[in-house]
Amino acid sequence: MKTPICEQYGIDFPLFAFSHCRDVVAAVTNAGGLGVLGGTAYTPEQLEQELTWIDEQVKGKPYGVDIIVPAKYEGKGEKVTGTQLADRIPAEYQTYVTELLASHDIPVEEKRRLGDSNLSGNTGEALLEVALRHPIKLMANALGVPPDYMIEAGRSSGVPVAALVGAREHAIKQARAGVDLIIAQGTEAGGHCGEVSTLVLVPEVLAALAEIGSDIPVLAAGGIVTGRQMAGCVAMGAAGAWTGSVWLTTEEAETAPHTVQKMLAASSRDTIRSAGRTGKPSRQLVSDWTDAWAPNPGKQQPLPLPLQSMLVEPVLRRVDKLATNGHEGAQALATYFVGQGVGLMNKVKPAREVVLEFIEDYVAAAERLAGSLED
Amino acid sequence: MKTPICEQYGIDFPLFAFSHCRDVVAAVTNAGGLGVLGGTAYTPEQLEQELTWIDEQVKGKPYGVDIIVPAKYEGKGEKVTGTQLADRIPAEYQTYVTELLASHDIPVEEKRRLGDSNLSGNTGEALLEVALRHPIKLMANALGVPPDYMIEAGRSSGVPVAALVGAREHAIKQARAGVDLIIAQGTEAGGHCGEVSTLVLVPEVLAALAEIGSDIPVLAAGGIVTGRQMAGCVAMGAAGAWTGSVWLTTEEAETAPHTVQKMLAASSRDTIRSAGRTGKPSRQLVSDWTDAWAPNPGKQQPLPLPLQSMLVEPVLRRVDKLATNGHEGAQALATYFVGQGVGLMNKVKPAREVVLEFIEDYVAAAERLAGSLED
């Protein structure tokens, strides 16, 4: 394909793949798409290692980095360490998690470790500095308007800046802030998402941008795990697709093995949009864990970002390990971010094969639509 | 267009338009689509009048009738009159509604009338008998598997039977029950809907039907108010689109004038999926009315179908009248069924113009997608 976005990013097919797994990023880029590494969970040193590895694999082909810097979070603007942030987690929440684990036969460590947060201090900026020492072709912020330093770094380095939006108002705000690429992500998406569906959001965002005279390209995201869905979005005016969930059941993915099995078995109705993992609404696989938090009636209200993640991430990593080893209680609790497209993810495949299937399916869909107009 | 579904139904463009307004039904049919009259709210005598009028307008062109016969409801299988059903509405609910009205400066009639229900007795069957005396080309059931008598009536009269589904499991059940057309309706739809988005549900339903060896055509529904969205769904494999919301702001529509203004001003985020109108989750325009019912935290749980409708429909019709006359409290309460596509509905148009714009936009979308593959 030779669409404007393909030309701009030097790719063959406008499929953008968000993954926390460097192997997926490299495989997608090498297959003609654009892999984007989710960098937030790394230390600057780890990110340096990951990107160096990717550079060796892709040999100059384009890839990107995503660093979450939300506009609002607990401790923003304060000089707080991770430990000081952790002190803000109420004891009752620790008790709530302990009891939830106990009810699933998971003994609790005497002094449970709380997670650190890359939102404390200026880790986001440090990660970005690392990324910019590599030949990245895109930097993305998956939550809210990118901070000024990201927009400025993009300008001065010539690297386009992308931002995810879940509502037309946010798209207008992002366009005015100066981003180069807007990802309109519907409510069916895995991870943080709004309430508007992809099929409505994409044309609504495109119309809103046209109204303010903006021609920023828009990628469609949310629920897209096949080439036919991507083609549907391009028919609506999207420049391509941003994907995440579909890579979680690839051979390369970092997903915990038991969770992969759950995903393969899940239908699209086995996800829930809940703040029980990060403190902001994000779509996840339904499990006893997601059942234990609001919006389920009468269940615990989550803490604000990033306190909820600090409380739960170490626990859920332990749950994943126990689940992998066959622990039944842990298997009932195990969950991960995933979109409604999980209902269409039924087989483990290499990431490269996913890209090739996307292309084939996209072409077939374009032919199907063109065929509908033939006499 | 000459796709199989166009041939089968004798239409030029596979756009199916559900409306409670006979003028919309006739206008869509006369413009080359297929209008479907929502018949449930009528008495058999009224339905006879409406269909006779439509027959005169469309002169043999194809149209359909939709009669809601849910699989489960309060009083099903019992010989109860509307009055006996009304006695099952707890006094506290009447008080709740009275107080809600009072808090909006709406005085309450001394003896408030409760609505009747066409689900009492065998009104569904009687309506169907009326419909079958007219040259209808489709009968639809918008809630659950059609009752046996509908499937049998379809078989003996040669009129195809359509059913709406919100999940893959329901599609399989419908196919096995023998329906001729499946409408896969996503969560963004106005009226009764499930939780899965149209972009995910359509390919998931198509895959599920293929798995059981069924080739029943599938219409996409939910959020579709433009030709580009319809084209996107046809690219994914849908045979066409089933629409509802987009007709509510046409010149012909029965929608209360104040509610039309609210819809034109609304964004896609101004809807909510709530059981506060019918007792089953349905998407509506957000208002003080929808705010007063679950799933809003701490608010009243609605009654089961059809008791909730019997309680609220007469009230909301009165609210509409007051709102039209400028009553501020009523304007804050006024609401109607509408999907997230309301964010793309910004102008009152004749129904015929909506169809023509759909066609133009569909063709442009098909060209856009085909263009993405050109060198």
TrEMBL record, chains A, B:
Alphabetized InterPro entries for the sequence: Aldolase_TIM, NMO
GO molecular function: monooxygenase activity
Keywords assigned: Flavoprotein, FMN, Monooxygenase, Oxidoreductase
Enzyme Commission number(s) of this protein: 1.13.12.-
EC class (word): oxidoreductase
Protein name: Nitronate monooxygenase
Organism of this sequence: [Mycobacterium] wendilense
A Pfam family annotated for this UniProt entry: NMO
